[in-house]
Design a protein that fits this description.
The complex is a heterotrimer of chains A (298), B (445) and C (294). Chain A is an all-alpha fold and 298 residues long. Chain A is built from 16 helices and no strands. Chain A is flat. Chain B is of the alpha/beta class and 445 residues long. Chain B folds into two domains: 178 residues, 3-Layer(aba) Sandwich (D-Maltodextrin-Binding Protein, domain 2), CATH 3.40.190; 203 residues, Periplasmic binding protein-like II (D-Maltodextrin-Binding Protein, domain 2, 3-Layer(aba) Sandwich). Chain C has a domain of 185 residues: Orthogonal Bundle (MetI-like fold). In chain C, helix 2 packs across helix 14, helix 3 runs parallel beside helix 8 and helix 6 crosses helix 12. The longest helix of chain C is centred in the first third of the chain and has 33 residues. The termini of chain C are close together. The chains are: A mainly alpha (298), B alpha/beta (445), C mainly alpha (294). The interface between A and C is large, with 115 and 117 residues. Chain C: Its main location: membrane.
């Protein structure tokens, strides 16, 4: 705290507490629903105070979702996606911001456009690619007259299939680009004067500076990939070995079907279970949110 | 000595076990759309099948919803990675019939020696999934139909102990209920399966030309010219007069919740919800199910089925089909199939054999299950007519959405019912023409 | 916007961007190309026959008045949800950045909404906003009929805007906080020495310095509201009542994913993409000019 501002502090605290309540209300509802028995949770209105069945619901959900087995898969996938995205996005943003070549704006837009069409729309052809990831190359080679049969690379029921397609989006590249743009030109100039090459500049100057942004991106990507369920549901048929935690939610959450009894208490307990690892990761990554050290003004 | 024999016994068990494993089980994949507790019931059935024999192994994969099961099967089929057996909901039937991707059930049963008594299926169910010439291309599976849920305590207030038989009687009851101080006599929503499809089938009204589309892809909808419009206008009048209320999950409770907790004295819903009402109803509430009311007494045709059927996909090996046939036998048998489903869900048996088996075991006398035979009564209320066979329209999910949206427009007062329904019909016909053009040159079987 | 100082090793530049381009090509452009080609044909779900129909599908899309109302609703939704969530998130981030007592708790609780999986969000929102049963039922007791998202299109639209804003707040908060934390403390201290108050420093010093992040979030939020909002619609309003919340992407989802009319969905996807590209282009052209980079 730089100075004392009691009135402003009071207002600030009030706003923070109010936002906290507003933001946490839905979470509270989930928690309360997870702590009641089947009859109570189906009462309208549902009580707003937790009941005494939380632990039995949690253990029922844990067993129904086979969470012993699937948590590890989810961690592998989420860590894979997060790490892959952080690395690949940093490299491509570095290329776009710090090199001058004619295609760079085009490439930036090509990467950027991937944000603009959801998976649901292209799910059928994307599945075909996952079934044979080298297919596109084979088709192109054949089209330009090189008749060749590439080996089939099937990504169904594999970690690569769960990870790679999720790495191929643009958020990270765009974020790094925004951040790199704020880095004073003097730093790059100094690096050039020292005669250190672009890679050294990247590793020794840019990356250390990007720490906080990287932590933010990692948090978001971890949670985002953790919560994916449509893609895993499609390409994983070997549920015993490759199911992810969020996929398991469909086993406990009733869909809009005739006659599906809403067993909301177990469903919400499963949600709490699935929610826990991302929250832990978030808390862990908060440690990286450190005050910047280098002045970026001129 | 003792220890030695124990070891020997253990060793022999291991040898036997590995001997059994040496004969590799033939695996095949089965994809299903049911989720939640119903999905668990499916998974358990697979497990039971796998434990019942040691030659085949069903790998059963829940797809997280009916629409996702259909979508994923299409995606997988196009990449030649599809399952051998798949559970597809009623509205997907026509896509699968026209797909060229399936192994028709009747042919499959013949080729793989499954002894199916096709005539044992209740006609109201069989016809829904059969081709226009009556061939069954899929195996009916989890099935239900619509019934009236009514609160006996509330009806007792107006001195009645029986459910209304006609819609006119129902309207009079609603008025009386209101006068007797019942806040909400009837809960409804804009679901077309209940309000349009079942209503039309039971009262012998057409939904589309060419026998509701069974006669070819050139069919046009005509629901806007039938008594359906008056029926919906009645709903609106009841709502405006305070006899009935719209209950959807957006309002807070769906139909079943608002009936079970006693808010509304009646509703129409699937028989599959029978168990849900039983387990969530307000303490001490007396209730029952009845056949849906009709327009004219004595003129009732059969109601139609809702649910899903099992399709065999083409392009698999004979060994996989062999395994699949064993599974199909298992899940369609009266005891391991129909009885299992009826006991663990609200779905009904699909053949007379299954129904008789359950009856003989006193299933319909047991508390919590009594009353479900009403569904069978409703499905078999008459011989199946061309109008109560089912609906065979292309992209029917979109047509349902159009009707629903226009009904909402009428109920919120944006347009009158006649305009709304004729708009819905226009848009539905555009959907049908697109579908017809997409499948130009293909014949609807 | 370009850097003055750049490197000139084109081969290295190509090598750096290659992994991303490969992934994007295989998992996005190749399949998307096929899906978009269907916009000019009538594609059967299982394949086996697709007739070239030129612009027929687009005529169907543009000739439908319901489609235009869906475009209008989508615009309102995207802008309202973006503004709402950005304003809330930036306020919270600025306050948390002041490190008042309790900021450690706020830091991760504000992020929680983003971590909650979709089915739970749907249940929670239905519960809170249901007129007869939820928290807002109290409002209805004083003003009967004021809130009814099942029958009132405006209420339903408001409901999905609030739900979307709610789910984006956590996302925005994290990035704002990261940006604020990157501002060196020396700068704030220098500001304080000059006699600038807390509010003044926020407005004149911190906000301009986080404009690159703000710009990033505006673009991402608007895009996300257009592209990834069907989940929220699906579990709360289902596009109703009477299409009042029938967003463009929800229509694509229902026509293609549920109705299996891949060609109609593909044509709408192209329209959606062109619209978002145009919007993004406008943002780059006009908003980015005001972004304070270095």
């Amino acid at each position: 705290m730089i100075e004392r501002t009691p009135v402003l502090d009071f207002i600030t605290q009030t706003i923070l507490v109010l936002s906290l309540v507003a933001l946490l209300m839905p979470l509270w509802v989930v928690f309360v629903a997870a702590s009641h028995d089947y009859q109570t949770v189906n009462q309208v209105p549902m009580p707003l105070w937790p009941g005494s069945h939380l632990f039995e619901n949690l253990s029922a959900a844990w067993a129904a979702g086979n969470f012993d087995r699937v948590m590890l898969n989810s961690v592998i996938v989420a860590v894979g996606v997060t790490a892959g995205k952080i690395c690949i996005a940093a490299l491509s943003a570095f290329s776009i911001v710090y090199f001058s070549y004619r295609l760079r704006m085009l490439l930036f837009w090509l990467i950027f456009i991937t944000l603009m069409l959801p998976l649901e729309v292209r799910i059928v052809p994307t599945y075909a690619v996952a079934a044979n990831a080298l297919g596109p190359f084979e088709a192109i080679l054949n089209a330009i007259g090189i008749s060749i049969r590439l080996p089939e690379w099937n990504l169904l029921n594999s970690y690569s299939g769960l990870i790679l397609p999720l790495v191929a989006t643009a958020t990270g590249t765009f974020l790094y680009r925004q951040f790199f743009m704020t880095i004073p030109d003097e730093l790059a100039e100094a690096a050039k004067m020292d005669g250190s090459g672009p890679l050294r500049f990247f590793f020794e100057v840019l990356l250390p500076l990007s720490k906080t942004n990287m932590a933010a991106l990692a948090t978001i990507m971890f949670v985002w990939s953790w919560n994916q369920y449509l893609w895993p549901l499609l390409i994983v048929t070997d549920h015993a070995n490759y199911a992810t935690a969020t996929m398991q939610l469909q086993k406990v959450v009733p869909g809009p079907l005739f006659g599906a009894p809403p067993i909301w208490n177990t469903a919400m307990a499963a949600n709490l279970i699935v929610l826990t690892p991302p929250v832990l990761v978030t808390i862990l990554l908060q440690r990286w949110f450190v005050r910047g050290l280098i002045s970026t003004d001129k | 000595m003792k220890r030695y024999s124990l070891l020997a016994a253990a060793a022999s068990v291991i040898v036997m076990a590995s001997g059994a494993h040496a004969q590799e089980r033939t695996k095949f994949e089965f994809w299903y759309g049911l989720t939640g507790q119903l999905g668990e019931v499916m998974a358990k059935q697979c497990q039971l099948f796998n434990e019942s024999q040691d030659r085949y192994e069903a790998v059963c994969v829940g797809q997280g919803g009916y629409d996702k099961a259909e979508q994923n099967t299409i995606a997988a089929y196009r990449a030649k990675q599809h399952p051998t057996l798949v559970q597809i909901y009623d509205a997907g039937t026509v896509n699968f019939m026209l797909s060229g991707a399936i192994y028709p059930a009747n042919k499959f049963a013949e080729d793989y020696r499954i002894d199916v008594d096709w005539d044992a299926y209740f006609p109201g169910i069989a016809n829904y999934y059969a081709t226009s010439t009556g061939e069954m291309w899929s195996f009916p599976h989890n099935s239900s139909t619509a019934v009236l849920y009514w609160n006996k305590d509330q009806w007792a207030k107006i001195g009645k102990s029986e459910a209304p038989k006609t819609w006119a009687e129902f309207a009079a009851d609603l008025k009386a209920l209101k006068e007797a101080g019942v806040e909400c006599g009837f809960a409804f929503d804009f679901d077309t399966w209940m309000n349009l499809e079942q209503f039309s089938a039971i009262n012998g009204l057409p939904i589309a030309t060419l026998d509701n589309g069974y006669g070819g892809l050139g069919a046009e909808v005509e629901f806007h010219q039938t008594a359906f419009a008056d029926h919906m206008n009645n709903f609106k009048d009841w709502m405006d007069a305070g006899y009935a209320q719209i209950q959807t999950s957006q309002v807070g409770k769906n139909l079943i919740q608002s009936f079970a907790d006693g808010t509304c004295a009646s509703t129409t819903s699937s028989i599959a919800n029978h168990g849900v009402v039983g387990s969530t109803k307000a303490e001490g509430m007396n209730w029952d199910v009845a056949m849906l009311p009709v327009l004219e007494e004595g003129k009732r045709t059969n109601s139609i089925v809702g649910g899903a059927s099992l399709w065999i996909m083409e392009g698999k090996t004979p060994e996989e089909y062999e395994a699949t046939a064993a599974f199909v036998k298992y899940v369609t048998a009266p005891d391991t199939g129909e009885k299992y489903i009826a006991e663990n869900t609200g779905y009904i048996p699909v053949t007379t054999a299954g129904f008789e088996l359950l009856k003989s075991e006193g299933f319909y006398d047991k508390e919590g299950y009594a009353g479900r035979e009403i569904a069978i009564e409703s499905l078999t209320a008459s011989d199946v007519t061309p109008l109560s066979r089912g609906i065979r329209l292309g992209n029917f999910t979109s047509i349902r959405a159009e009707v629903r949206a226009e009904l909402e427009a009428a109920f919120t007062g944006q347009k009158d019912m006649e305009t709304a329904l004729s708009d819905a019909a226009d848009r539905s016909n555009q959907i049908l023409r697109r579908y017809e053009q997409t499948y130009r040159g293909a014949d609807l079987p | 916007m370009e850097k003055r100082v750049t490197f000139s090793n084109t081969w290295l530049a190509a090598a750096l961007i290659l992994p991303q381009m490969l992934l994007v090509f295989v998992f996005f452009y190749w399949p998307t190309g096929e899906a978009l080609y269907w916009a000019f044909t009538l594609e059967r779900p299982f394949g086996g026959g697709n007739e070239w129909v030129g612009l027929y599908n687009f005529e169907g899309v543009f000739g439908d008045p319901k489609y235009w109302s869906s475009v209008r609703v989508s615009m309102i939704f995207a802008i309202a949800a973006t503004v709402l969530s950005l304003v809330i998130a930036v306020l919270m981030a600025l306050f948390v950045d002041r490190r008042l007592p309790g900021h450690q708790v706020y830091k991760f609780t504000f992020f929680l909404p983003y971590a909650l999986a979709a089915p739970a969000v749907g249940l929670a929102f239905r519960f809170i906003f249901s007129p007869d049963a939820g928290f807002v039922s109290a409002i209805n007791q004083f003003f009967p009929g004021l809130w009814n998202p099942a029958l009132d299109g405006f209420d339903a639209l408001l409901l999905i805007i609030l739900a979307q804003a709610w789910s984006l707040v956590g996302y925005n908060f994290i990035f704002f906080l990261a940006a604020l934390q990157s501002i060196p403390r020396t700068m704030s201290e220098a500001g304080a020495m000059d006699g600038a108050g807390v509010m003044r420093r926020m407005w004149d010093l911190q906000l301009p310095l986080i404009t690159p992040t703000l710009f990033f979030l505006i673009v991402i939020n608007i895009t996300d509201s257009f592209v990834n909002s069907f989940g929220i619609v699906d579990i709360t309003t289902g596009g109703g009542p009477a299409r009042a919340t029938d967003l463009m992407v929800y229509k694509i989802y229902t026509d293609g994913f549920q109705g299996k009319d891949y060609s109609l969905a593909a044509a709408q996807s192209i329209v959606l993409m062109v619209l978002i590209v145009a919007l993004t282009f406008i943002q780059f052209r006009f908003i980015e000019r005001r972004v304070h980079y270095t």
